[in-house]
Amino acid sequence: MSETTAEPKTEKMGFETEVSRLLHMMVHSVYSDREIFLRELISNASDACDKLRYEALTNPGLKTGKDFGIAITVDKAAKTITVADNGVGMNREELIANLGTIARSGTANFVNELTGDSKKDVQLIGQFGVGFYSVFMVADSVVVTTKKAGDTTAWRWTSTGEGTYEIGEAEKASEGTNIVLNIKDDADEFLEQYRLKNIVTTYSDHIAVPITLAIKGGDEADKEAEEAKVVNNGSAIWARPKSDITDEQYAEFYKHVGHAFDEPAHRLHYKVEGMQEYTVLLFIPTAKPMDLFDPARKNRVKLYVKRVFISDEGTDLLPGWLRFMRGVVDSQDLPLNVSREMLQNNPVVARMSKAITNKVLGELETLATKETEKFEKIWTEFGAVIKEGIYEDFARRDQLLKLARFKSTNGDGWTSLADYVARMKDKQSKIYYITGLDEKNLRRSPQIEGFKSRGLEVLILPDAVDDFWLQGAPDFEGKPFASVTRGSSDLDDIAESDTAEKKDKAPEGEVTTLITLMKEVLGDKVSDVRASSRLTETASCLVASDTGMDMAMERLLKAHNQLDSVTAKVLEINPSHGLIKTLAHKAGDKGALDSLTDPVWLVFDQARILEGDTLDDPSAFARRLSSALEKGLA
Ligand SMILES: Nc1ncnc2c1ncn2[C@@H]1O[C@H](COP(=O)(O)OP(=O)(O)OP(=O)(O)O)[C@@H](O)[C@H]1O
What domain of life does the native source organism fall in (predicted)? Predict the structure, then answer.
């Protein structure tokens, strides 16, 4: 890991604007936990060793036969800290991409949230983490010298963190990366042995490569410190007995392995022996990982084989609907030289995946019954993802339906389907639901009025995924799911609750005449007009026909250009609403077709607005509304 300096030809380059903003913030930071810079450097160095170890397995040209390690050396006289690793290193392009731009989504989010107010911005550091750039909290200038494994040229990157950096060729005998920090005057504390040792044990004890610390140039009493000594535990945390690991150590490992900045909400640590042998250490995050809704839906659990890192991308270790989980699976059965391609459709991986998925599901079930509050927090963050399993994972559909929690008209909290069924009314045979994209709006939907007035509970399903799983899950324990915005509502069999206000209805004959007139006015804009039993407060609403696609689903497909046009809806009118009663009363009059045309359109357009639809002809709507108001006020 030694390095010699030569006179390099250097090139000055500007940081990406976002990086400059970030660096400005770092340089002037008043963040109190500046010590995290070392955690970030060690984490990167350990990842670099893991990467090279893996690449050397499949690329014989890279066989190094060496021991990996991270060396921290302090030169007290020169006021520098050097963090050196013998990992994979970087070539020129990688240096520019990694330390000149913002490649990570986490950091990009950080920069987007920056306000310019340093007190507010400082709090963001803890929330997002800032990776390598955090070195500028403690260093005036930084020199990175690196040589990519397999390359002959080394590169040096130098910066004071102010707008530009310099890059040029360098001399470096061994592959890997050396990072030299010229420590700021006010960051002297980080030159002390006890301080550095303490930081390593706090944040990086679990790192599986040995980390050594040596302090040079101290006074006589520090002579002993000059010798590099291993300061971390060094054993893979997942291989240690649970009883030896503290909650803090688990949490630090979670942050390292998951590139996360939150605390883990829950962990699972166990070992399997027998037919298959592997160790699992998985975490459920508290907050949604940045890439949760990334279309690639990649599983991020790291696969190790006999402690050697193999891959953390697309290993099929967990299904897509558990992609929020972070952690490690270490197999004893896979061959060490397994390539990433071989991992796809691999029977050993498939067996592990099945068993681990069952274990996670079992754990979630236990939490749901024994630690409800914790489970509901997890569900609030990740329920929308877990529900993908209901339509994707047929074999586990019933189990997932049992586990799932939903909002409903029965209060604000979560309910299980089993609890919903237990609350069903005598004559109720279906599980009613409404889907859409906003819980508050759904709760105000006119279509659920008649259900509420009959004491019938309606599930409120605000996630886009709800429309999909409902396609694949027609019932729960024999009780079919029924959309309240589709088909005739068959509510007439169930009496309104005693507390529901009894309202006079327009006579049936008048309503029939009005319906005929409305059909004539609206033509093919509606597929039918009928009297509604699902409305109590609102004059009209739209529903899909019995055979039509659910309206929320149709809107979703249309928004994603999966449907060219939407089908005409059924317009339902409320015979006990004042406006409908007046219209019904006038519908038989001479010339009614003419005089009621505008009001009929208004009733229809109102229903469309309530659905959040845009009107075909807003100016006609405005004209009719003005004219109706004018007449009403005259
Ligand atoms: N010692 C190193 N050896 C090889 N590559 C490195 C080293 N340090 C940093 N890098 C490269 O620079 C990239 C950016 O590092 P940075 O610390 O900013 O973010 P990160 O490590 O990707 O994310 P996080 O901080 O969330 O772990 C890394 O992903 C890695 O590719």
Answer: Bacteria
